[in-house]
Amino acid sequence: MKVLIVGSGGREHAIANAVAKSSKVDKIYCAPGNAGIAEYAECVNIGAMEFDKLVSFAKEKEIDLTVIGMDDPLVGGVVDAFEAEGLRVFGPNKAAAILEGSKAFSKDLMKKYNIPTAGYENFDSPEKALEYLETSKYPIVLKADGLALGKGVLICNTKEEAIEGVKSIMLDKKFGSAGNTMVVEEFMTGREVSVLSFVDGNTIKIMTSAQDHKRAGDGDTGLNTGGMGTFSPSPFYTKEVDEFCKKYIYQATVDAMKAEGRTFKGIIFFGLMITEDGPKVLEYNARFGDPEAQVVLPRMKNDIIDVFEACIDGTLDKIDLQFEDNAAVCVVLASDGYPVSYEKGFEIKGLDTFKDKDGYYVFHAGTKFDDDGKIVTNGGRVLGVTAKGKDLKEARANAYKATEWIDFDNKYMRHDIGKAIDEA
């Protein structure tokens, strides 16, 4: 098979790594890819939002399967563009990708179908939102409705912070058009857990759990980022939590989307909060999480192509999804200053160290080749250093040991990824 992967981050590198292991695949392309993905794939200079060019390339190269990694093209309708030309593509169509594309839609869906979530109100005018804040309880959560690179959520401890938050989202357009509509949500306390799943429109198969670290600084301080590290499995995702979610959240979401005429095929990412009142949905994503994919996919035993094709063909019930009985931890190496401002173009040294190390991975997020063919930094999140271990503590120790193999100017990371493991 010939496979095309669309995207350029650590998630797409993890997907490429999994696809490269398939005995069914002999050629991988990635558009636009990065310096790490180039190890497995021929990178093509086509942007993820250039739908016409992507479709033309897939037809020209006779691509057998295209895998969409990113949220923007999914929400924009890239799957519809491929399907209109009779091309096989993995991911939800535009009608289904709204599950991530609009937080207001997903909250209304959960309310309509009694899927547990935080209390909320949707607003399309700042005046009404500000009025609502006068009688609200604090802390409170403000969410830009649309896509905002995983950063469109503000937790406000006081009314004054919330007023400033409304202004920044809806008036100053901090997150662009994503803030035209806003969700104001009750603040939930508990443990956050990420659960990825494969969906074929009817059947849902749950992957192993994971847990992300969104804040830029140690101790969950600083600004929200796209994710500074993650671990899998989560010790807080117990058998009881799993049984509750299977009964009231997972299948209920798939059935709700089908009932709305938005049949979902692809990945549903469930962001959960384990509260005193039981698990509740924080958010949905319509694709692999980043960096969750970097700890979940290396632990998956199945041939990923079999799973992708089952989702497309509606035969996921025939797949026995299996994961290794171990653990993985990913520590993101970022450029100092991320997520605000940072320099790029620094040479990255030590990448070759990973080539002969079983159970260690370095997933490229923001890298490129310079004019001399050297791999240099090209983003805020640069690399995801992932390691396995027999349990979470060993995996964490291995991952932090592996971060020492890599060197580049302005290298920055959190030092407490997975520290919650010690408290479990």
TrEMBL record:
<dbReference type="InterPro" id="IPR011761">
    <property type="entry name" value="ATP-grasp"/>
</dbReference>
<dbReference type="InterPro" id="IPR013815">
    <property type="entry name" value="ATP_grasp_subdomain_1"/>
</dbReference>
<dbReference type="InterPro" id="IPR000115">
    <property type="entry name" value="PRibGlycinamide_synth"/>
</dbReference>
<dbReference type="InterPro" id="IPR037123">
    <property type="entry name" value="PRibGlycinamide_synth_C_sf"/>
</dbReference>
<dbReference type="Pfam" id="PF01071">
    <property type="entry name" value="GARS_A"/>
</dbReference>
<dbReference type="InterPro" id="IPR020560">
    <property type="entry name" value="PRibGlycinamide_synth_C-dom"/>
</dbReference>
<dbReference type="InterPro" id="IPR011054">
    <property type="entry name" value="Rudment_hybrid_motif"/>
</dbReference>
<dbReference type="InterPro" id="IPR020559">
    <property type="entry name" value="PRibGlycinamide_synth_CS"/>
</dbReference>
<protein>
    <recommendedName>
        <fullName>Phosphoribosylamine--glycine ligase</fullName>
        <ecNumber>6.3.4.13</ecNumber>
    </recommendedName>
</protein>
<dbReference type="GO" id="GO:0004637">
    <property type="term" value="F:phosphoribosylamine-glycine ligase activity"/>
</dbReference>
<feature type="domain" description="ATP-grasp">
    <location>
        <begin position="107"/>
        <end position="316"/>
    </location>
</feature>
<dbReference type="Pfam" id="PF02844">
    <property type="entry name" value="GARS_N"/>
</dbReference>
<keyword id="KW-0436">Ligase</keyword>
<dbReference type="InterPro" id="IPR016185">
    <property type="entry name" value="PreATP-grasp_dom_sf"/>
</dbReference>
<dbReference type="Pfam" id="PF02843">
    <property type="entry name" value="GARS_C"/>
</dbReference>
<dbReference type="InterPro" id="IPR020562">
    <property type="entry name" value="PRibGlycinamide_synth_N"/>
</dbReference>
<dbReference type="InterPro" id="IPR020561">
    <property type="entry name" value="PRibGlycinamid_synth_ATP-grasp"/>
</dbReference>
<comment type="similarity">
    <text>Belongs to the GARS family.</text>
</comment>
<keyword id="KW-0547">Nucleotide-binding</keyword>
<keyword id="KW-0067">ATP-binding</keyword>
<comment type="pathway">
    <text>Purine metabolism; IMP biosynthesis via de novo pathway; N(1)-(5-phospho-D-ribosyl)glycinamide from 5-phospho-alpha-D-ribose 1-diphosphate: step 2/2.</text>
</comment>
<keyword id="KW-0658">Purine biosynthesis</keyword>
